[in-house]
Amino acid sequence: MKIKSITGDFAEVESGRLIRKVNIKMLPKVKAGDYVIVHAGFAIEKIDPDKAKETLKLIDEIC
Amino acid sequence: MKYVDEFRKSGLIHKVAGAIRAINPQGEINIMEVCGTHTQNFFRFGLDKLLPRNLNFIAGPGCPVCVSSQEYIDQAIAYTQDKDIILVTFGDMLRVPGSRSSLEQARARRGNVFVAYSALDALSFARRYPQKKIVFLAVGFETTASTIALSILQAKKEKLRNIFFHSSLKTIPIAIQYLLRDKKLSLSGFLCPGHVSTIIGSRAYEFIPEKYGIGCCVAGFEPLDILEGVYLLLRQIVKKSPAVENQYKRAVTGSGNLRAQKIIAEVFRQCDASWRGLGRIPKSGLRLQDTFSCFDAQKMLPVKVKLPAPGPRAKKCRCAEVIKGLIKPDACPLFSKACSPENPYGPCMVSAEGTCNAYYKYKKDA
């Protein structure tokens, strides 16, 4: 889910038209615009865009 | 990039499936996935139909609801009999059958069972009803453990005195180790769970190739993630070079989320745990550290339950073998007859992550 805004320990995240408030205490360095994995009301990890591109490139090379 | 559509492109899916078929593995290959979401998505996206028939996918104990012991459910139901207690739980626990009834039935009788999306919701109940005792059912693996640990720290910070956590939290690597020691299972490799691995890191699985000579691959949940994971794992199996591979690099690092690990270690300690289907596994559970015992439901509000002797139908339920991957759900005499998602008998049929539930939804008429 994409972080829209951050207020203290909480961030507003969106996915499509769904907007949720999640706790970001486990990820102190995230900022608006980052994508995070959300589990049970908490952001548990930031998604690394470079690594995602690398994986897609590897998948493309398999074929 | 939104990290969803890019990993669902049908052209690429067919290409990777083709690459898997081109490896042309010989003999029966048993891959265990230890995550309920893998099981669900595997069927949901029809990936099973794209892969060679000798690749067997075995759903391991990766659904936290399915492995919650009957005794735990009975204890939760016992809490609801106290009118001063409000029981807060994740939604999929409601319908899990205990030995006599379920939390859903208890809720209908007493009305003091509430569903929460997050452990933080239980804190809201504690603030709103200071005269009540709030019991939260802490069920899940490492991923959920980190969120519950943070909620407990928050409860401590706010000096909440009316909230208690009943922990049935479990850890995945020790369950994998237990399965590897079972001679009845001839496993060729593991597809390791994505979200648990974001917390514990891919290095937590190094014992699998090192000690047991079996390969594994951490994989994400989108169809291309799962297929690439299977491809990488299959390559290991064919080359006989077991290792830990990480397909889900965009979210999982070698060492995991260290902050989350620290929080878990601060609040919880290892304990023995009962897994439905697997029995008691030493050091596979998490319970609250003594410094947090004022939030520990087992200490502050102990309940004793006595399990009745299993009835005729309980004897027929084969969830235990399904969880271990010894049989497929349709080998159970209750499957799709006495046991269905509308009227579940065994835990694997209850949760959307359960193997029997996935089979019922996607494979029953196949």
Explain what this protein looks like in three dimensions:
The complex is a heterodimer of chains A (63) and B (366). Chain A has 63 residues and is an alpha+beta fold. Chain A has one domain: SH3 type barrels. Helices cover 22% and strands 43% of the residues of chain A. Chain A is built from 1 helix and 5 strands; from the N terminus they run βββββα. A 3-stranded antiparallel beta sheet of chain A has the order 1-2-3, with no helix packed on it. In chain A, strands 4-5 form a two-stranded antiparallel sheet. The longest helix of chain A is centred in the C-terminal third of the chain and has 14 residues. Chain B has 366 residues and is of the alpha/beta class. Chain B has 2 domains: 309 residues, 3-Layer(aba) Sandwich (Rossmann fold), CATH 3.40.50.11740; 49 residues, no CATH class. Chain B is built from 16 helices and 12 strands. In chain B, the strands form 3 sheets. Chain B has a 5-stranded parallel beta sheet with strand order 2-1-8-9-10. Chain B has a 4-stranded parallel beta sheet with strand order 4-3-5-6, with helices on both faces. Chain B is globular. The relative contact order of chain B is 0.16. The mean pLDDT of chain B is 92. Classes of the chains: A alpha+beta (63), B alpha/beta (366). The interface between A and B is medium-sized, with 28 and 39 residues.
Provide the gyration radius of chain A in Å.
13 Å
**What is the largest interface, and how many residues per chain?**
A-B, 28 and 39 residues
Share in β-strands of chain B? 15-25%
Can you write the helix and strand succession of chain B as a string? HEHEHEHEHEHEEHEHHEHEHEEHHHHH
Helix content of chain B: 25-40%
